Amino acid sequence: MTASDSAATALMTFADIGKAFGQGASSITVLRDINLSVARGEIVALLGPSGCGKSTILNIIAGLLTPSTGVARYAGKAVEGLNHQVGYMAQSEHLLPWRTVAGNIQAPLEIAGQSRQAMTRRVAELIDMVGLKGFAEAYPSQISGGMKKRTALARLLAYDPETLLMDEPFSALDAHLRLHLQIELRALTRRLDKTLLFVTHDLEEAVTLGDRCVVFSARPGRIIKIIDVPLPPDRDIMRLRYDDAFPKICRELWSLLAPELENSPA
Predict the structure, then answer these.
(1) Is the previous residue joined to 161 through a cis bond, with omega within 30 degrees of 0?
(2) Distance between CA 260 and CA 266 in Å, rounded?
(3) How far apart are CA 240 and CA 171, in angstroms?
(4) Which among 4, 13, 161, 5 has a CA at the least distance from the CA of 78?
(5) What 3-state class would DSSP assign to 11?
(6) In whole angstroms, what is the distance from residue 67 CA to residue 220 CA?
(7) CB-based contact 68:93 (threshold 8 Å)
(8) pTM
């Protein structure tokens, strides 16, 4: 999908977004002049040095932060207060240790006031969807890191948000497990017709999952370039590294990011 296509069918737009924290001499500007459109059903990766405002972008469209300048819109309306059309998954799973896998997945359904019968049916469906069958009654301390991620993903999907916001969700996992979860995440996103906006420091992950990659400068973050990923929508993730386009895109991303990493504050 090209940038012009994205703008024409935008679900999310960031218009002249700037964000500063603090006041006066102690103020720190993390974002400056951000203009970005994300189309419905698109998967967009945000890359850049630490502290350049990538996570702030997620927080702004989620309604957790208000921009200092500019406006963020979701489905054509300015985001004011919490955006209930999005679901957020951070780097840490934040599972409740006293609740089972099923209990953790059920938590947002309880908040939504669903009936017990409806919750039971939905939790069972999600457990099967993310590959946790047989572990419904296990506690977080009894399952692997990958299973914790699956539980967090199922909880994210529980109330069926239109858009998924993910902040380095797989960064703490080994390469083999990360690859398998990437396969499942892209498949689920397509199958459930979700929009995905995610932050990553992993160039290969950005190209593996993304339809587009948005590259940010060092703080104050601005968009250096938006790169379309010319890989098929139904890409075979296990064999992507045999595609000549894959390393070429990774090299282009690295050529953009390397100077910014050198200039980024520690």
Answers:
(1) no
(2) 12
(3) 20
(4) 13
(5) strand
(6) 14
(7) no
(8) 0.90
